[in-house]
Amino acid sequence: GAGVSQTPSNKVTEKGKYVELRCDPISGHTALYWYRQSLGQGPEFLIYFQGTGAADDSGLPNDRFFAVRPEGSVSTLKIQRTERGDSAVYLCASSLRRENEQYFGPGTRLTVT
Amino acid sequence: QKEVEQNSGPLSVPEGAIASLNCTYSDRGSQSFFWYRQYSGKSPELIMFIYSNGDKEDGRFTAQLNKASQYVSLLIRDSQPSDSATYLCAVNGYGSGYSTLTFGKGTMLLVSP
């Protein structure tokens, strides 16, 4: 079946601009996660959704970052007033239930100039 | 603070040899352990997961878990050049409500023909 999909695959934006990154999880997966990966590092947790609600947003670095999952499927990660330090690959993962294996999408490479 | 430690490598092995990748973790309450393979420029791909002490085999891959020593390893038998990638160890612990993953920085494996 179809895996996790993310759009866009690449996003270049200017410092101070607003961006939205989209994730479409595997069908039937109730848990959805956002991670961020910088070069040479492992993925770093940002936020976790169980259904429509953000069950854990402790990884969001500051209030410029926000994510939604209004219908319990597709999720959007929103970054306001982007900074150069936000440049990274943003990964989305989904799992059948929260304690199960997580499957990653291809990621969105964000570059803030 | 939960930590997952891996030797960054590179670990170099000849084709056909056994590659041994190691990982230690700090959260004694951790329950689930995952190995992801990540090719350069790609997203992490789940290759093994283990929940109980002991060994778990899947094809050429064997995951080993020792909770008392807080140690998990991945053995790759009959290594192939196509196995050359970064291997990420991830831990899903009680402290995160069994939801989020904490990743190590990964070990780069190089398999020479």
What does this structure look like?
The complex is a heterodimer of chains A (113) and B (113). Chain A is mainly beta and 113 residues long. Chain A has no helices and 11 strands. Chain A has strands at 5-7, 10-13, 19-24, 31-37, 44-50, 53-56, 65-68, 75-79, 88-95, 103-104, 108-112. In chain A, strand 5 and strand 6 form a beta hairpin. Chain B has 113 residues and is mostly beta strands. Helices cover 0% and strands 55% of the residues of chain B. Chain B is built from no helices and 11 strands. The mean pLDDT of chain B is 93. The chains are: A mainly beta (113), B mainly beta (113). The A-B interface holds A 31, 33, 35, 40-45, 48, 50, 55-56, 59, 89, 91, 98-99, 101-107 and B 4, 31-32, 34, 36, 42-46, 49, 88, 90, 92, 96-106.
Descriptive key words:
heterodimer; A: mainly beta; B: 113 residues; six-stranded mixed β-sheet; five-stranded antiparallel β-sheet; 11 strands
In short:
The complex is a heterodimer of chains A (113) and B (113). Chain A has strands at residues 5-7, 10-13, 19-24, 31-37, 44-50, 53-56, 65-68, 75-79, 88-95, 103-104, 108-112.
Q: Structural class of the helix and strand makeup of chain A?
A: mainly beta
Low-confidence stretches of chain A: none
Structural class of chain B: mainly beta
In quaternary terms, these chains amount to: heterodimer
Shape of chain A: globular
Number of strands of chain B: 11
Round the Cα radius of gyration of chain B to an integer and report it. Answer: 13 Å
Largest sheet of chain B: 6 strands, mixed
Put simply, the count of helices of chain B is 0
Chains forming the largest contact: A-B, 25 and 25 residues
Q: How confident overall, as mean pLDDT of chain A? A: 95
Q: What profile does the largest beta sheet of chain A have?
A: 7 strands, mixed
Helix content of chain A: under 10%
Gyration radius of chain A (Cα, Å) is 13 Å
Query: Would you identify the regions of chain B where 5 or more consecutive residues have pLDDT less than 50?
Result: none
The ordered H/E elements of chain B are EEEEEEEEEEE
Number of strands of chain A: 11
The separation of the N and C termini of chain B measures 41 Å
Roughly how many Å apart are the termini of chain A? 37 Å
